[in-house]
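## retry 2 of 3
previous attempt timed out at serialization; input unchanged, resubmitting
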Amino acid sequence: MEYLVKNKKLELKHEPGKGAWTYHIQIPDTKHITGKWGSLKVSGTIDNYKIESINLFTITGQDKLISINEKIRKAINKSGGDRVTVTLYLLSPKQQITEKQVLESFQESGVLKPFKKLSSSERTEIIRKITSLKSEDKQIKMILGIIDQLSKRNE
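## retry succeeded, writing output
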């Protein structure tokens, strides 16, 4: 088990307008970790709240982020600007992005319901576009763009 952080106080950041990433925690010293979107997952605790298999948001050359959804924020009774005690370890990486991983990211981001309201052909086309991209950065940008669009439908 490779710990990324162990019992470390980190800030729960709040950046309005970032869709699922409006509330997030930046994990220090993780720039060196490489992998495609959906292949890097962590488990651990945030203020003793158990986290199981949550995606790391990868930005080339920057420390990784994890999104902190409303369920987690309510459970730990914290909001943007608060400090939380974080223990996270990296789960074994997977080989390539899959439809299941895209859907999991939509679920974690709270936009799976609006995604499912789209027509079958729209859903299929979105998944095809994401999984067919060769560049990890392009895949991430597309996923974030779709999450942002779907979150606006959810408001």
